[in-house]
Sequence to fold (327 residues):
Amino acid sequence: MSSSTAPAAQVAVSNGIAAPDLDLPFPDRPEIITENLLKIVDLAPNPRTRLIFKNLVTKLHEFVSESNITTEEWMYTIDFLTRTGKTCTPIRQEFILLSDVLGVSALVDALNNQPIGNATESSVLGPFFTEDALDIAHGDSIASEGKGDYMFVEGRVLSTDGTPIAGAAIETWETDANGFYDTQYADRSAPDCRGRVHSGPDGRYAYRAVVPVAYPIPGDGPVGELLEALGRHNNRPSHLHFKIDAPGYKSLTTAVYPEGSDFISSDPVFGVKKSLVVTLEDVDDNEEARKRGFPQGKKFKHLNFDIVLVNEAEAKAALAQRVRKQV
Fold:
C-alpha cells in the first residue's frame, strides 16, 4: 500500500485548556491533594459550578479521610456505581432509585419546593415515571380491567386564592394489585395504570383507577443489595402519583398516601408528608358504581383530592426569599 493511501494516524486530542498558572506543591501528603484540587476548582468560570464543586470536593475528601476508606472499599464503590449504570434501561432508572433510598431525591425536592401558603406539597418523582402516558377523557380509566380493586379519583385544580384552573394536565400513575408498575412487566405493550387527564373549565378532574398497594422497590439490582447491607426494608407504602402542569403555574410533582398503609412511617424513599396522607372512602352502591363507569361490582374506593398550584409570581417570590436567607 502506498503512503498516499495509508490511513491517517490517530493521536490523543487535548481539550485545549492551558495548565493553571498556580504554584501547586507536589501532593506528598494527603491534605495537599485536597488543597491543590480546591485551588484548581476555584478557577472554574461559572460561579455556581465553582460553589458546587468546592463543596463537593471538600465533603467528599472529608468523607474519604475521616472514614479511612481502603482501596478495596473504593474499588467496590466504583464497581457498585458501574453496575448501577448498567442496570438502567429506558424504562428502569436505577440511579434515581439510588438517589431515592439515600434520601437525596427527597432532600432536593424539599429544598426546592418548600411549602407556600395552602399550596399542595410536593413528593418524589420516583423511578417509574414514563413519557408515554395516554390522554383519557374526564371520568375514564387509567387501568385496564382486572388490575385491582376499583377506585374513583376526583377533585379540583385550584390556585392559592381558590380560583379554578382550567386545562391543567394531570399525569398520574400507580401499581396494580400485584404491586408492579406496567414497566416492570417484560411483555409490556402499552401504558397501563397510568394516564393523563385535564381539568375542565371549573377546574375539576376525574378518572377511574385501582386501589394502590404497598410494594417492594426492585431488589434485584445494586440498590437492593445496598438496602440489604444496611439492614433496611424495601417496601413502599401504597400511593398514587401526580404530575401537574398548567400555563402560568409552577409544575408540581406529588403523590398521595392512603392512611393506614403499611410502611407509611418508614418509607424507604422518604416521600410521605403529613399533608399528603389521604382518606379513601368506602362506597358500596351498585347504582353509584355504574354511574362512575365501573363495569363490574358495586364496591369501590373514592378519593377526593384538590390540587392547589403556585403561580409563577408566587414561586419567583419564594425563591428570592430563600436566596436572601442563604446570603
About this structure: The radius of gyration is 25 Å.
